[in-house]
Specification:
Number of helices: 1
Helix content: 10-25%
Strand content: 25-35%
Distance between the termini: 24 Å
Number of strands: 2
Radius of gyration: 13 Å
Number of domains: 1
Structural class: alpha+beta
Length: 65
């Protein structure tokens, strides 16, 4: 069971977006639950080699998010 439509004022996700298999569906769900003037803060690793986990291949660019 998810959150009701347009029920969230502020949504925060930190270093998790790269973990979701269906990133587009994840973003759609975030939009679905945010109120009209709700805000989403998405923090994740840059899509570049930083020498540590997670691998660049699964990281999400700003444009993709």
């Amino acid at each position: 069971m998810g959150f009701p439509l347009k029920s969230i004022d502020l949504l925060i996700t930190i270093n998790t977006l790269h973990e979701f298999d269906k990133k587009d569906k994840t973003i759609e769900e975030m939009r679905r639950v945010l109120k009209r003037f709700g805000k989403a803060l998405i923090v994740d690793f840059k899509k570049e080699d930083t020498g540590f986990w997670p691998p660049v291949a699964i990281r999400v660019s700003k444009e993709e998010a």
